[in-house]
Every structure is written in structure tokens, then in C-alpha cells.
Fold this sequence. Notes:
By secondary structure, the chain is an alpha/beta fold. Helix content is 29%, strand content 18%. It is built from nine helices and 13 strands. The strands form three sheets. A nine-stranded mixed β-sheet has the order 1-11-10-9-8-7-4-3-2, sandwiched between helices. α6 (136-143) crosses α8. InterPro entries: AB_hydrolase_fold, AB_hydrolase_lip/est, Fungal_lipase-type, Mono/diacylglycerol_lipase_N. Residues 1-18 form the signal peptide.
Amino acid sequence: MRFSILSVLSALSALGHALPNKLQTRDISADELSEFKFWVQYAAAAYCYDSYTAKAGSKLACSAGNCPDVEAAGATIVYDFSNTTLTDTAGFVALDNTNKAIVLSFRGSYSIRNWLADVDFPYTDPGLCDGCEAEMGFWNSWAFVKDPISKVLTETIASNPDYELVVVGHSLGAGIATLAAADLRGMGHPSTKMYAFASPRLANPALADYITAQGNNYRFTHTNDPVPKLPLLAMGYVHVSPEYWITSGDNVTVTTSDVQKLEGTVNLNGNTGTGALLISDIPAHHWYFEQADGCLGAGLPFRA
């Protein structure tokens, strides 16, 4: 989700409303911090053109220098996808033998088609649970690539049965990753882990509760990043719990005391409680342990 969307919608922020929040909060451990700093690098790699257009067997690399640990692990592309759907869903499946992981990573917004998916706010029934509704643009972004990715994941998991399945993304990519992980858990991969950095809201309360109950969800916000404040609470959208709220500033080293774990699909102690949706807060959207979208190309292409 990018700046033009925020400029159009910021005037609507006054329509948002607060729901009761749960007060449980704690700092994270050193091991958790190390884990979070690692997985965001896979989300960052999805912005790099050479990653989402790579040939199978190619090693992951970030031209912006923001995925050094992934590069050091020697992770390789199993499958790449981009520019094949109406939503221009892009990303890759990678095999990380060093960390015994199969990683599905979704790129955030880049093309016009991505941004149209960002603001496709009407609900749709994803068929995940009774009464569950998802933001149409995010669900379609996953649904359009679901079949080929599922086939690749099934084959890769069969060849590496002791590897964990991890789904990651930043911004739009985080929204897609959240729904993809929820769906994959119901398709026979219940232990799938999900790391969503700067995700917009994407679910009605029933769906948010359903995904929350699945577990293995790690959703991150940063200070007053405006993107996780969209779509508005007044539109019926809420977040998946828990929230890991990064409170340190832009482009600084994050410590364990800079990340608070907050429970609840709406929690006013975190990003949601930082005030109105303002365009001036956009810089916070880039910084999630790294400059997560550092590889993002310039311009506004219809096709990426």
C-alpha cells in the first residue's frame, strides 16, 4: 500500500472508532528479536526484481543490501511469480537449507494493479469459516496464485518433510501472506508460521478470530505507520492478534524493549492508538528492523 492511497483516504480517518482493547503486553526476548530480524529479510527480498523473476535454483540476493542473513544462508528460489494476474501478485517460494525452512514471500505494492487491490475494500467470503469475510483485493491477490503455489509447496514439503513452512510479506504482501497462511493451514499445513510486517486490516471480526485461534501469527506494526490503520475500523475491519508494536524510530537499531506484544484484534495501546491517519507518518511504513521495501523500483507501472 503506497502514498497515493493514503492521500485519498486520510480525510476519512475521522470515521474510525475505538473498540475495547485487551491490556496484556510484554517486551520480547533476545531470541525472538533475532528471529524477527531474520524473517523480515525474506519480506524485503520479495521487493527485489531479481527475486520475483528469478529462475529456479537461483540464490536470493537483495540489491539494497537489506537481506544479508538470507544471503548468508544460501537460500535458493524454488518458484517465482509476478505479472500473471489481474492483481499482479508477486513473490517467490524459496528453500532455506541452513534454517530448514520453505519460505513463501509476497511483494508489497509496486504496480498500479497492486494499488487497485489495496483499495478493493468490499468484503468477500473466502470460505475459511462460518461468517468469515475478507477484504476482496487481498483475498483475490492470493486466490489468483493459490493453485500453482500450493502445488509447488506440496512437492517441496514432500521432499523436505522436516522443514517448517513460513509465509512472509510487508504491506500489501503482509495482507496476502496472512490470508495465504490461514488458507494453507486449512489445506493440511497447520503449523505454518506467518510473519506480517505493516499489514493493513483485512478481516471482519469472525475471520480475525479464526486466524488468531490458528496460532503461529506474528503481525508487526511500527510506531504511527498509517498503513495498519487501513481499512478503517468504521468499515468493520479488524486485525489478527497478536500485534508486535515496534516503538523505536526510523532507521535505528531495534532492541528487545522496543517491541511490545499486544493482544486483541483492536488494541489502543499499539499502532491503532497513535492518533489520526496522517500522510506525514508515511516514513514509519518503511522501517521494520530493516528498510523493508529498500529494493522497491521507481515509477508507477501498470505491469511490474
